[in-house]
């Protein structure tokens, strides 16, 4: 009778959220990320006491902060990874718009903390770097535009996304923050590549990058000094790179032992840009290889899962996120071993830094959401294919 | 490419004949084409993703291999200590105005270990602990037997210690040349020199960086290789500095003072010939900054350029000189000194009762607060501020020491008429003794303000004029009277032949926690110049909490404390400075002057 009057009680046809998440999420990537976070705390214990001493805090002050921000990052990662791709896209695009506006307002309201580049908003209790939050949002928004462009009669999304990229790169270069703008450019390039860039354009872009690099070399003293330092085969042992190289060498295969490292006392960026040197010195090559393995697993595994993905948007967005994550780690470690010229870039999930940790957590959450196992309609395709033939 | 047209005519015609909607055919074809396109894009993307995956894998592998390669190679430090890797004198010497060494470098050795090359690490640790009592044997053993490839043992060792370590015969113990900063005069001029420490360290060299004083101020210049080690020449004269420090130290002890400072300055060139602050320290073994207590009680605190004090009646000459310069009074104008001078709730009193009125000269000679306060009232607060600003009393001194920047004068927030009156006799304004010396130099050199400097100057400085030469000469004559007049407060400063002129100042010390002044603690200052008729030097002596107990009751005023100390300094230093005493020979024994 009740059902006749009020209609039948609504029944959720779908699976409950958590079991479904657990069934479909890429557990390999997830465990690699959690391990990376653990490594970050472990290295924070080693690398941050000198900084805490310099700033007059208790020895493990920064470790506690790192654990707090890391916890927030993990929580946001879990929440984001439980969303379905459409929800992720909506939130990401909204977040992108907000971060874009924040980035545009930086020259007026931002602070440079005396470091010569206006990249932060000071919020009293802490600071926010909008470009960190811009990156994942940008990837998703660009992927959306490019995917739309693949429909017949779709909008010219590739052109739009390119214009957006140029605008962001210009704003970041004005700060100046060449590292982040290179990352943004790289992310867009990777997505464009996977979205089917014509070979001719790829070659042209490579040429442009070379030209741009030459231009920056001849016009920016900051940039030129870094490149010169890189090209110079002699390592001055009193430069950051010299200290890092030394630390890796003295660490050897098994490290000098926990807490015995010296490099963290001489390098001002030991807890961020050169944390891998601290890892190499105290724990040796073993831990470094583990860290490299973790990053490689995350990136390569995500890419292989995305190969099977049939939705263009998901494929592109996932690719952009995974590659940006991987390349950031690669640049950071490449600098420490002098494969790349000195460029300040944090090691995602390991380096100290609140903004960067949480933004990375969100980005990785999106990546997990995009790489979840979902029905790809293979059987239907096959049947359709047969029918078509 | 062979594609089906979206609207194949044959099918459209057929559909029209049977009465179906021909648009459905177009939609169907569109869908099929779309699917084909997506399939193609997916296949292409699959291939490209594979390329990317392989590229990433390779890149990570390259980084891993490079890490392994680096980790497998030897640290750079041992390679750097090849033969002939000795270091040239990197940091320039510091010399005094006559070229005598104040700071130089000495080559010593550092001791480090390569545990991997050690044959008997336990024995080496034991022997090292025997040679260096401050090393812990257990700790060394742990370091030598652990996984480390490199261990610092000692940063500086003497030649004897080096030989002893050498005699252990352990191949894993190595020496690196190391330059160290040496101050051969010990404590002498310690506050000026400051001190140095090691900056970045490597095996084959260590950077010596200045940590205080001129060593820090001129750090870049001293380390600049393009100057090829040209010494930094200061205006300090080592002999004068030594004599002044000696006398000041003796005076400080005799008068039970907590601290003392003295500045001797050339009023024309601005050169600081000697500057002392007691207690002092040995820059070869610079003490650590104190963790508790007031930093101003630390030996590291430079009272001459960092300490800001109310310097009391020494400021009166500025009020008098300005009033004369403005033409408000002359030396003989009578000034009403009936007291107490009431201003609101505040009362200004004199130390003694000096009568109803005094001439301007006597106001200064007897140091009447009421008299100078009345002069300040005539001058007015605005003009007073302008004048004090022009003689540098508003900003930290520009002297070439890092500490000078912290010696910022304390000024009243609201420069009222009352402030003007108290400031005229040196209360309510706190400056460093260096400020005072610069102010007196302006009177001494005939009315131009010059900046004190620690660098040797070739010629007199040209500074802005702050008062007329006549005013300066009159002010000097008055300062001379303070000493030579039998009623003057500084009569003990009379040094025969050197015609000292100056002004005393005794200021009650303010309580540290605010709220009033101590009754029994004073800052006693004597600011002087000699010879007064044509001053060659300005001397400021300040004593912190002096007490003279030879009489019945404790005497603290500057006339009994700072003045005798200053007189002793002048009588010692003036001959060394090459000043000839101006004494009429009473009788030249055995010689008859021809003109008589």
From TrEMBL, chain A:
The chain crosses the membrane at residues 28-47, 67-84, 91-110, 159-178, 190-217, 283-304, 316-337, 349-370. It catalyses: [GlcNAc-(1->4)-Mur2Ac(oyl-L-Ala-gamma-D-Glu-L-Lys-D-Ala-D-Ala)](n)-di-trans,octa-cis-undecaprenyl diphosphate + beta-D-GlcNAc-(1->4)-Mur2Ac(oyl-L-Ala-gamma-D-Glu-L-Lys-D-Ala-D-Ala)-di-trans,octa-cis-undecaprenyl diphosphate = [GlcNAc-(1->4)-Mur2Ac(oyl-L-Ala-gamma-D-Glu-L-Lys-D-Ala-D-Ala)](n+1)-di-trans,octa-cis-undecaprenyl diphosphate + di-trans,octa-cis-undecaprenyl diphosphate + H(+). GO terms for cellular component: cell division site; plasma membrane. Its EC number is 2.4.99.28. GO terms for molecular function: lipid-linked peptidoglycan transporter activity; peptidoglycan glycosyltransferase activity. Keywords: Cell cycle, Cell division, Cell membrane, Cell shape, Cell wall biogenesis/degradation, Glycosyltransferase, Membrane, Peptidoglycan synthesis, Transferase, Transmembrane, Transmembrane helix. Pfam families: FTSW_RODA_SPOVE. It is a multi-pass membrane protein. Its main location: membrane. Pathway: Cell wall biogenesis; peptidoglycan biosynthesis. One of its GO terms (biological process) is regulation of cell shape. It comes from the Bacteria. It is an enzyme of class 2 (transferase). It is found in: Cell membrane. PANTHER family: CELL CYCLE PROTEIN, PEPTIDOGLYCAN GLYCOSYLTRANSFERASE FTSW-RELATED. Belongs to the SEDS family. FtsW subfamily. This is Probable peptidoglycan glycosyltransferase FtsW. It comes from Pseudoprimorskyibacter insulae.
TrEMBL record, chain B:
GO terms for molecular function: penicillin binding; serine-type D-Ala-D-Ala carboxypeptidase activity. Gene3D superfamilies: 3.30.450.330, DD-peptidase/beta-lactamase superfamily, Penicillin-binding protein 2a (Domain 2). Its EC number is 3.4.16.4. Residues 279-298 are annotated as: Disordered. Residues 261-555 form the Penicillin-binding protein transpeptidase domain. The chain crosses the membrane at residues 49-69. It is found in: Membrane. It is an enzyme of class 3 (hydrolase). GO terms for biological process: cell wall organization. Keywords: Carboxypeptidase, Hydrolase, Membrane, Protease, Transmembrane, Transmembrane helix. It comes from the Bacteria. This is Putative peptidoglycan D,D-transpeptidase FtsI. The gene is ftsI.
């Amino acid at each position: 009778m009740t059902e006749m009057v009020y209609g039948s009680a609504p029944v959720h046809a779908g699976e409950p959220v958590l079991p479904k998440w657990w069934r479909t999420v890429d557990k390999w990537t997830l465990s690699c990320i959690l391990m990376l976070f653990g490594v970050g705390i472990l290295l924070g214990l080693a690398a941050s006491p000198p900084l805490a001493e310099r700033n007059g805090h208790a020895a493990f002050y920064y470790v506690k902060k790192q654990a707090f921000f890391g916890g927030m990052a993990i929580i946001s990662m879990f929440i984001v990874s439980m969303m379905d791709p459409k929800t992720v896209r909506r939130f990401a695009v909204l977040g992108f718009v907000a971060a874009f506006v924040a980035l545009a307002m930086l020259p007026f309201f931002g602070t440079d903390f005396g470091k010569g580049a206006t990249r932060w908003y000071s919020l009293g209790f802490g600071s926010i770097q909008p470009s960190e939050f811009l990156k994942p949002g940008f990837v998703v928004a660009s992927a959306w535009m490019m995917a739309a462009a693949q429909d017949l009669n779709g909008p010219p999304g590739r052109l739009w996304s390119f214009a957006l990229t140029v605008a962001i790169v210009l704003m970041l270069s004005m700060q100046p923050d060449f590292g982040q703008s290179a990352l943004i450019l790289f992310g867009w390039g990777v997505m464009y590549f996977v979205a089917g860039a014509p070979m001719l354009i790829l070659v042209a872009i490579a040429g442009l990058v070379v030209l741009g690099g030459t231009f920056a070399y001849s016009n920016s003293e900051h940039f030129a000094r870094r490149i010169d330092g890189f090209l110079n085969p002699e390592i001055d042992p009193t430069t950051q790179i010299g200290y890092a190289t030394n630390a890796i060498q003295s660490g050897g295969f098994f490290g000098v032992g926990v807490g015995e490292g010296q490099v963290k006392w001489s390098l001002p960026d030991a807890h961020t840009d050169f944390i891998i040197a601290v890892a190499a010195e105290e724990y040796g090559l073993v831990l470094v290889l583990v860290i490299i393995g973790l990053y490689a697993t995350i990136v390569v595994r995500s890419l292989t899962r995305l190969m099977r993905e049939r939705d263009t948007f998901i494929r592109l967005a996932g690719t952009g996120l995974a590659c940006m994550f991987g390349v950031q780690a690669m640049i950071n470690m490449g600098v420490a071993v002098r494969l790349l010229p000195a460029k300040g870039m944090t090691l995602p999930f390991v380096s100290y830094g609140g903004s960067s940790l949480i933004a990375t957590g969100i980005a990785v959450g999106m990546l997990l959401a995009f790489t979840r196992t979902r029905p790809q309609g293979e059987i239907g395709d096959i049947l359709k294919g047969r029918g078509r033939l | 490419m062979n594609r089906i047209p979206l609207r194949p005519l044959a099918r459209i015609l057929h559909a029209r004949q049977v009465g179906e909607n021909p648009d459905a055919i177009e939609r169907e074809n569109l869908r099929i084409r779309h699917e084909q396109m997506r399939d193609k894009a997916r296949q292409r993307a699959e291939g490209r993703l594979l390329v990317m995956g392989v590229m990433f894998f390779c890149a990570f592998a390259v980084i891993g291999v490079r890490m392994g390669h680096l980790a497998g190679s030897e640290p750079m430090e041992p390679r750097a200590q090849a033969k002939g890797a000795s270091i040239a004198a990197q940091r320039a010497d510091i010399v005094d105005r006559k070229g005598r060494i104040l700071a130089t470098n000495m080559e010593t050795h550092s001791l480090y270990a390569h545990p991997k090359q050690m044959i008997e690490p336990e024995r080496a640790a034991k022997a090292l602990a025997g040679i260096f009592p401050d090393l812990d044997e257990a700790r060394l053993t742990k370091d030598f037997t652990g996984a480390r490839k490199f261990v610092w043992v000692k940063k500086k060792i003497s030649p004897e210690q080096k030989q002893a370590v050498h005699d252990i015969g352990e191949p894993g113990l190595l020496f690196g040349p190391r330059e160290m900063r040496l101050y051969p005069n010990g404590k002498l001029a310690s506050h000026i020199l400051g001190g140095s420490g090691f900056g970045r360290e490597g095996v084959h060299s260590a950077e010596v960086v200045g940590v205080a004083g001129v060593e820090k101020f001129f750090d870049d210049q001293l380390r600049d290789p393009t100057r090829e080690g040209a010494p930094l020449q200061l205006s300090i004269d080592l002999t004068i500095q030594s004599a002044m420090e000696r006398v000041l130290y003796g005076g400080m002890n005799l008068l039970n003072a907590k601290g003392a400072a003295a500045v001797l300055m050339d009023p024309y060139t601005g050169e600081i010939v000697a500057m002392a602050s007691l207690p002092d320290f040995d820059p070869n073994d610079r003490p650590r900054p104190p963790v508790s207590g007031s930093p101003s009680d630390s030996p590291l605190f430079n009272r001459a350029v960092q300490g800001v004090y109310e310097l009391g009646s020494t400021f009166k000459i500025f009020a008098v000189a300005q009033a004369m310069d403005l033409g408000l009074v002359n030396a003989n104008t009578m000034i009403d000194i009936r007291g107490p001078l009431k201003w609101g709730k505040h009362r200004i009193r004199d130390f003694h009762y000096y009568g109803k009125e005094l001439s301007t000269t006597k106001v200064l000679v007897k140091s009447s607060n009421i008299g100078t306060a009345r002069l300040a009232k005539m001058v007015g607060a605005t003009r007073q501020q302008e004048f004090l600003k022009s003689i540098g009393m508003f900003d930290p001194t520009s002297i070439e020491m890092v500490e000078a920047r912290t010696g910022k004068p304390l000024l009243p927030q609201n420069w009222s008429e009352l402030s003007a009156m108290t400031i005229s006799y040196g209360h309510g304004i706190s400056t460093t003794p260096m400020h005072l010396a610069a102010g007196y130099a302006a009177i001494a050199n005939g009315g131009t303000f010059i900046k004190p400097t620690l660098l040797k100057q070739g010629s007199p400085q040209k500074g802005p004029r702050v008062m007329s030469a006549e005013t300066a000469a009159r002010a000097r004559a008055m300062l001379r009277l303070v000493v030579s007049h039998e009623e003057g407060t500084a009569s003990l400063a009379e040094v025969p032949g050197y015609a000292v002129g100056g002004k005393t100042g005794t200021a009650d010390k303010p309580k540290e926690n605010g709220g009033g002044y101590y009754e029994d603690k004073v800052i006693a200052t004597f600011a002087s110049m000699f010879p007064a008729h044509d001053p060659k030097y300005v001397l400021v002596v300040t004593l912190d909490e002096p007490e003279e107990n030879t009489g019945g009751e404790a005497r603290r005023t500057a006339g009994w404390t700072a003045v005798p100390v200053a007189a002793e300094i002048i009588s010692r230093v003036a001959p060394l400075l090459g000043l000839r005493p101006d004494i009429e020979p009473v009788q030249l024994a055995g010689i008859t002057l021809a003109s008589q």
